[in-house]
Structure formats: C-alpha cells, structure tokens
Amino acid sequence: MTSRRHAEIAGAGFAGLVAAIALADRGWTVRVHERADALRAFGAGIFIWENGLRVLSAIGACDDVVAGSHDGEVYEVRDRDRVVAETRFDLAMGSRMLTMTRQTLYAAILGQAERRGIEIVTRSEAVGAEPAGVLLTADGARHRADLVIGADGVHSRVRDSLGLRKERDTGTLGLVRVLAPRCLDELGPGRWDRVIDFWNLPHRSLRILYVPCNPDALYLAMMAPVEDGEATAIPVRADIWVPAFPQLEPAIRRISAEGRYDAYETGKLTRWSRGRVAIVGDSAHAMVPSLGQGAGLAMANALGLAVALDEVPEIGDALALWERRERPRTERTQDMSARIARDRLGTAGRIWSEETIRTARSVPTGTERLPHGAGGLPSPAKSRLDGRGETDGRVNHAPL
Predict the structure, then answer these.
(1) Secondary structure of 368-399 as H, E, C letters
(2) What is the pTM of this model?
(3) Rounded distance, CA 296 to CA 307, Å?
(4) Among 264, 262, 256, 261, which residue's Cα sits nearest to residue 219?
(5) What is residue 127's three-state secondary structure?
(6) How many other β-carbons are positioned within 10 Å of the β-carbon of residue 2?
(7) What are the DSSP calls for 236-303, one per residue?
C-alpha cells in the first residue's frame, strides 16, 4: 500500500492555506507553520475578481466570502470632485469586482482548512529550507517532507535560503492601508456604494481609494510617496490628508489606529522551485497592487501547484509543469501592474483593456470543470471592452 505524501508549508496566509487545502483534497497530509501567535489577517481591505472567486469555489469558501463582501459594481475615478471615468463590472465585463476586509477572506479560507483537519502550528517560524525536502524552523527543528512550500511572504526566508531571487524593484510610491467606519450619514449625499478612486496629484502626489467592504467597514488605500514621512505616518495624520480630500473628512478622522504603509514592490525569481521546495504567493511574485490581483493569483497558483502534483507523479516534473503553466500569466500581470503605477495611468482612467482585464476573468488551473456561476457568473460573459480599453464609450480604470 502506497503511503500518503506529506507537505510542510511555511506561512498560513492566503497562498499557504489554499495550497494546504488543495493538497489535502488530493490525499496529502499537510502541516502549516505560522510564525505569528494567532491566525488572523492584517486589518485592511482586498479585491477579489472572477478568477479568485473560482478558486474559492473550488475549495468550498466562495459562498462565505460572497456573503461577507461588497459588490462594488462601479469603479469611479475622480480628480478632486470631477468624475473622470467610470467602469461597470458586470456580466458583460466578464468579472465581478467584490471587495471585503482581509479578515472576511481569511476567515472563510481558514474555516475550510479547519474543516479538513489540517494541522496549523502557530509560533513556528520558518528560517530556511533544503532542496531535498526539509523545512527549517527557528527552534532548530528539521521537518522532512515530500514537498516543502514557502508561502512566507515578500521577505521569505525559505526563498532566500535557496538563492532563488532574480530581481526586486521597489518603487517610489506606496500605500497606507487602513480601515474606517462607513460614515454614510456623515459623508452626506453621494454614490458611496461605489469604489471611488480620488486623485489630488498637485497636493503632495496623494491619492485615496475609497472601498466599501460591507455595511459597516470601509477600506482606505492611501497612496503617498515613500519619501513623504508625514503622509506615510501610522497612525494616519488627519492634518495631512483632510486638506487634500475634504469630502472624506468624516472617514479620515475615524480611521483605526492600526494600519501600515507598504512601498510598491515587484519581485521575480530565477525559478519557482528548487528540488522538493516550491515558492508561492508574494514569496514568488510580489506585485504592485494596480490590478488588485495579488491575492487572486496567489490563490490560483497555490491551487495550480496541487493540480500539477496530482497530474504528474514525480515531484520535479510536476513542479516544472506548474511553473510553465502559471508563470507567464503571473509575470505578465506583474509587468502590467508596475507599468500602470509608474505611468500613473489612473489619473485619466486609462487602464482597462482586453489585456489588463484578462487575468481577472481567466479560468485558473483546477477550476475548468466548475459550472459557469461557480465564481459568481450565472452564464458565460461577453466583454464590452474593445482594444482601446473603452466600455460603451466610457474610459475605464482599475483599482490599486
């Protein structure tokens, strides 16, 4: 009788948990190591598109995510109070635009891992790996496995221990990511159920993406130059942001004390695996959040990894197949996201085209047999976009 294959995973974030669930569903035993003392997501918001919804459906988490999220429907770009562009995400566009708190997404995925009885060890910090299939943790332990997965984030010690980094491009801009109450009564009349991208470039190159997450929570993604110490400060300084965006003053003044500032970063590797160690999520492909695809692609590639390992018995061959299938789409999205931020295409709403929406409405590996509607679409969608990135005569824009 053939024994079950075993995986050791560094990182209990979105990519690590989806990989664990997908492997468990294919007969693997799995242990996940998380360096934090509790399982929780950073307090901010997140976008999930049709590709991400299909992955969530494949692991059984889609219904819980949809129930706790906000259907943005319209993405609006404003230069101060002037509406520059609108984009409607619906069946004709080929992808919904759902927004939620990161904790809503995380709780749904974690719930599926717990239902499968997956072992998750907190306060267990990965410090490296060996290509033969050994995960090293800070307590000096050596965890042997048929496969080790490094899903330990942008500053992955598993990845770096294997010398896989190819390039790292840190930009001059970044985001303060915070949550606030919706403040609908205080904000006054307006279309506050929309995702609204507020620009005010003459004022210190600042920008706020206003993102409803649910009836109570609001996500504010506040763009500022890395060198602007006042605008990037945590807690957020209302005296800096309110003068630039007075229409959002009630929300800005009620921002949670928690939050963080992250500089834009694109990270690429020489390869996504070495021996019996695979690198997934931000560890492998950190990207500028211009297209809102960081989490979606992390989850899609984690599922794709499990599918490849199920298709090909030999670990090395399976990892090579996985990278051939998933890497081109991932790096294309990384490059587009970086270019959008670098050229500030959002100021005129010039982002969405057949090419830039391609990832959002793609069908991830392992979800091909799901019925239409598994990711939120009841029937096949026909895009309204043409090659110029216009929809029904309107210029379109995408989220940070």
Answers:
(1) CCCCCCCCCCCCCCCCCCCCCCEECCEECCCC
(2) 0.92
(3) 17
(4) 256
(5) strand
(6) 5
(7) --HHHHHHH-GGGHHHHTT--S--EEEEEEEEEES-SEETTEEE-THHHH---GGGS-HHHHHHHHHH
Quote the tokens at residue 9: 């995973």
Chain segment 53-110, per-residue pLDDT in tens = 999 999 999 999 999 999 988 999 998 778 888 888 876 788 899 999 999 999 999 9
Domains by residue range for the chain, with CATH: 6-70+102-168+266-349 (3.50.50.60)
Nearest to 77 by CA among 201, 233, 221, 195: 195
Task: Judge contact between 66 and 186, C-beta under 8 A.
Answer: no
Strand order in the sheet with 165-181: 82-88, 74-79, 195-200, 206-212, 217-225, 165-181, 260-269
Distance CA 354, CA 32 (A): 38
183: left (phi over 0), alpha (psi -120 to 50) or beta: left
User: pLDDT (tens digit, 9 = 90+) per residue, 297-348?
Assistant: 999 999 999 999 999 999 999 999 999 999 999 999 999 999 988 877 666 6
